[in-house]
Amino acid sequence: MNATRMVTAAALCLAMPGHAWAAGLADAPPGALSCSGCHATAAKADAAVPRLIGRNPADIVAAMQAFKSGQVPSTVMERIAKGFSDDEVKAIAAWYGAQKD
Amino acid sequence: MSAKRTSRREFLKSAAAGAALLPLPAIAQGARGRVVVLGGGFGGGTCARFIKRIDPRITVTLVEANPTFVACPFSNGVIAGLRDIRAQEFGYDKFAGDQVVLSPGTAVDPQGRTVTLGNGSQLPYDRLVLSPGIDIRWDGLPGYTEAAAERMPHAWKAGEQTLLLRRQLEAMEDGGTVVISAPANPFRCPPGPYERASLIAYYLKTKKPKSKVIILDAKDAFSKQRLFQNAWRTLYPNLEWVSLSNGGKVTSVDVGEMTLVTDFGRHKAEVANVIPPQKAGRNAEIAGVADRTGWCPIDPATFESKLQPNVHVIGDASIAGAMPKSAFSANAQAKVCAAAVAKLIAGERPDEPRLINTCYSLVAPDYGISVEGVYRPADGQIKEIEGTGGVSALDAPNSTRALEATFANAWFNTITTEVFG
Fold this sequence. Notes:
The complex is a heterodimer of chains A (about 100) and B (about 425). With about 100 residues, chain A is mostly helical. Chain A has 4 helices and no strands. Chain A is globular and about 30 Å long. In chain B, strand 6 (about 105-110) and strand 7 form a beta hairpin. The longest helix of chain B is centred in the last third of the chain and has 23 residues, at about 400-420. Chain B is of the alpha/beta class. Helices cover about 30% and strands about 25% of the residues of chain B.
């Protein structure tokens, strides 16, 4: 993240109390922002679906691979995971991992 | 940043990337441009917030006619008596104070780039995002007028209509017939009529078990069809679906007789829920972004209108290819559109997006099913990526159905928090 983006991030934190987008929203890789329809960004939202923000990217990648292969049973995630290549998943995981509360 | 962006702009110019990518005069003056978002539902509310979060220097104004938004997803639960309408209502008090203007948009001038408000004042924009939702085609079904909708509610825009249908079901005597008319594609919320039939059947089964539900359908196939039909066989023997081929298409309604007419006969109803043909909402019309179909053609990467430059259309009103007209789609499209608008205002090239849709339906309070898709632009349209998506397993155990019902509730709470919380 360059200096300008850090400044932007600081401004965002001031402007949006209660929301967890920490940095680099403009850099979100393709598909990443769709996830927050179900995976809450705000800590107060419903916890039945795990949040992705701040998680270890390797864990997100491993989970997506396990969903995709069917190794870990899921409801919707197997069907969604199949829509993303390994590289796309890695980019999304890295980006969510870099987000902070 | 300036060095990087300048070089990129020059690259794009030299690549003759097209007028839409040229930086606006406002950029040269050091400002960041103005965006007006017209319509504050799942699409517009999301888009206004995300443009501001992506680039706080952009001036974003959300224009919405109603101080309270009533969400359609889960409103079938209100109709079935499972849920209070207040759980569907959201306001704009969590938006930044100067960001929301509670007023109808009465006119759009795409050449002059202004939106006229209810009080006659004009809001200038560099880019306009429309999230018009749907309107009923009052010329689409003979006999079905606005007055008729007071006797035969559509309840396809949540609010008073939702409560009216609820009251009619409560007032109906046991043994009555509820007739639901489902329209041809495309329309808002493809699985919605079937979820509604399911939850009404659930209410009747528990409170008025001699009653029945008939769906008269203008289609031979519908969203999550086998999942719904399998569940109905087990749960709701008093629910009957009449397909197009079997004479299901309603060709007119007779409000005085409380009768729905098909080519094959007349169906008398104690409660009639007519889900009529639809079109893009009025804001699409005033901006001139709807085509002869009544819906709005868009660029699949930026959601920019194919009919008016610098105007973007998201949500139910847009012709979004394989994406269904759902709140989840509108929310996902809004975020893609927000990113594209920020890039275009900066004179940069928008990324090629990926979009997800997930639609949950409740067949019963503890019985959820879903359909998903992952999408990308291809051949000028939004297409589903092959081998992805699909519906819940046909042979899943009850525990999975219960889990999907839990996820459905979680989705509603999460998405409404993202848009309004």
